[in-house]
TrEMBL record:
InterPro entries: AAA+_ATPase, AAA_ATPase_domain, ATPase_AAA_core, P-loop_NTPase. It comes from Aromatoleum evansii (Azoarcus evansii). This is ATP-binding protein. It comes from the Bacteria. GO terms for molecular function: ATP binding. Keywords: ATP-binding, Nucleotide-binding. It holds the Pfam family AAA. Residues 93-225 form the AAA+ ATPase domain.
Length: 306
């Protein structure tokens, strides 16, 4: 009805109808006991090996994000929440995102938080199952994934996207990976579903240039600044540490570490306290754990260079 009214030029009525439908759907979803607004969807058959589904409760507020990143993600959520209105005016909400940046800076967590905020399932695409030695098979599997994208609304997350999107070939077979990339380009271009597609990579430099314009937004992640590291430390540890804690010095000790590295150091510090029946975390101990992470990071950098 809404589409019919929109075609007749009754934009306002179409918009109101869509909003009524969206509100009714929302109420029905919220009536599901237990998990709240998330409808249950489980991939079946071969799709089950290609997609891993979960129903994250995460929110963007759980994350420490650079301001530009937070603003870009809020904009995606805003457009998703008003998608009925936007579509009734012939506008597409933002829904194809490419996240780039170093490991452990929150790309996967973002996909989960978007799903949590929108109360829709998160489908992680298993690239290892998707990419096989046989090109025909890979294209058919990719087709299945994109069919699911249009059939079941969700956040579809392609991690380590450079495996598909790279100009260079997997197993040195440039021709084959090129064909997989071409199928992906075609499918993402044709996709007009209401799912959110999120691709992430640590290696944007090797992505094919043709890919960038297929996404509505390319969002860049970085290791935390001192002030972001301070927020990350405070968010998790303020209830375990003394009021006089010098968060600034701890943040300096964390310079260059990713959010994931800092989180692991904090978790280790909390574990130590729990195992020794202590209710607080010692600043000195945390400092030591952050330094250990720095050593591990240097080693990893060294190995990557060799
Ligand atoms: N921005 C962030 N704010 C708060 N915690 C974070 C953030 N980024 C990462 N973390 C912590 O680090 C963990 C790992 O991060 P995540 O898997 O999202 O990184 P990633 O960028 O996807 O890494 P990779 O590129 O290696 O897949 C998260 O589960 C969370 O505990």
């Amino acid at each position: 009805m809404a589409a019919h009214e929109a075609k007749q030029g009754h934009g306002k009525l179409a918009e109101e109808l869509r909003e009524l439908i969206d509100a009714a759907k929302q109420r029905r979803a919220e009536a599901v006991p237990g998990r709240g607004a998330v409808p249950i969807a489980r991939p079946k058959g071969e799709l089950a090996s290609l997609l891993h589904v979960s129903y994250p409760a995460r929110k963007l507020a759980d994350m420490v994000l650079a301001q530009e990143v937070a603003e870009a993600l809020q904009q995606v959520l805003k457009e998703q929440r008003h998608q009925g209105k936007l579509r009734s005016h012939g506008l597409q909400p933002r829904r194809k995102l490419l996240l780039v940046g170093p490991s452990g800076t929150g790309k996967t967590m973002t996909a989960a938080a978007l799903a949590g905020e929108l109360s829709i399932p998160l489908f992680v695409v298993r690239l290892d199952a998707l990419i096989t030695k046989f090109m025909g098979e890979t294209a058919a599997k990719l087709r299945q994934v994109f069919d699911a994208v249009s059939e079941t609304r969700g956040v579809y997350f392609f991690d380590e996207f450079d495996a598909i999107g790279s100009q260079r070939g997997l197993a040195n077979d440039v021709g084959e990976i090129r064909r997989i990339l071409n199928s992906f380009l075609l499918m993402i271009e044709q996709d007009e579903s209401n799912s959110v597609i999120v691709a992430a990579t640590n290696h944007p430099d090797i992505l094919d240039q043709a890919l960038f314009r297929r996404f509505d937004d390319v969002i860049e992640y970085h290791v935390p600044t001192d002030s972001e590291a301070k927020d990350l430390l405070r968010n998790r540890l303020s209830r375990y540490m003394a009021k006089t804690t010098d968060w600034g010095s701890l943040a300096i000790a964390a310079q260059g570490l990713s959010h994931a590295d800092i989180t692991r150091a904090m978790e280790d510090a909390i574990k130590e306290s729990v195992m020794h029946d202590r209710e607080t975390v010692s600043g000195q101990e945390l400092l030591g754990l952050l330094q250990q992470r720095q050593v591990m990071r240097q080693r990893a950098l060294q190995t990557n260079k060799e």
